[in-house]
Design a protein that fits this description.
Layout lengths: L9 H16 L6 H8 L3 H7 L3 H14 L1 H14 L4 H13 L3 H10 L1 H8 L9 H18 L8 H16 L9 H12 L14
Helix pairs in contact: 1-2, 4-8, 5-6, 5-9, 6-9, 6-10, 6-11, 9-10, 10-11
Length: 206
């Protein structure tokens, strides 16, 4: 592999390389050599920007968490404008989240003790990304409850992590084809059915 390639944005390119390795071969294949080989740069490039490999992996996880901000903004806008249906919006959100590298990132966190220890320094509770996704869905569900598309007594703190757990299970098999949209909607509808306001049903997204 080339050892003298200049990277325009080393952190971003190393993150992208790590995500490609994760998607192609899974968490066990993710090493510093695999990342730099994938990025086409010398191994020393990674260590010039990160204290060690666990520092790099922690930054990778937190970068993926930060990307939820745009998705959260779009979900809240859907609630504010009444766009789509609650079930459709939730199904789309879970698909956008878990069809990406997110499932592999969660597997990475679960499988590496050193990475979990590093993340606990700033995030002492919860599994990063899953916990953040639950917060995102909770904010959306609360907004829909305020708007009247969920019942006033909808148990948002329970519904949000239940949806994340169900979504993660649907998409977790890296070797299988992703679930069909109808399958995701069916699971979401089952989780939130009792919380929907009368007349909302599962409907179809607008």
């Amino acid at each position: 592999m080339p050892t003298g390639v200049a990277l325009r944005d080393p952190r971003r390119q190393l993150f992208a390389a790590a995500e490609r390795v994760l998607l192609r071969a899974g968490p066990n294949a993710l090493t510093s050599r695999a990342v730099t080989d994938e990025a086409g740069c010398a191994k020393g490039v990674l260590h010039r920007h990160f204290a060690d490999f666990d520092d790099f992996l922690a930054a990778l996880v937190l970068d993926r968490v930060a990307r939820l901000e745009g998705q959260s903004t779009a979900l809240l806008a859907a609630a504010d404008t009444g766009r789509g249906t609650v079930v459709g919006n939730l199904a789309d959100a879970l698909t956008e989240l878990f069809e990406s590298v997110a499932v592999a990132v969660v597997g990475l966190v679960v499988s590496r003790d050193g990475l979990r220890a590093r993340l606990r320094r700033t995030r002492p509770t919860g599994v990063p990304l899953l916990a953040d996704a639950a917060d995102m869905l909770a904010a959306y569900l609360a907004a829909e409850r305020d708007r009247g598309r969920l019942a006033p007594d909808a148990d948002v703190p329970t519904l949000a992590p239940t949806l994340v757990g169900a979504g993660h299970l649907l998409f977790a098999d890296r070797e299988a084809a992703p679930p069909a949209p109808d399958e995701v909607r069916k699971v979401v509808a089952g989780v939130v059915a009792s919380a929907l306001a009368p007349g909302e049903g599962s409907g179809s997204p607008v």
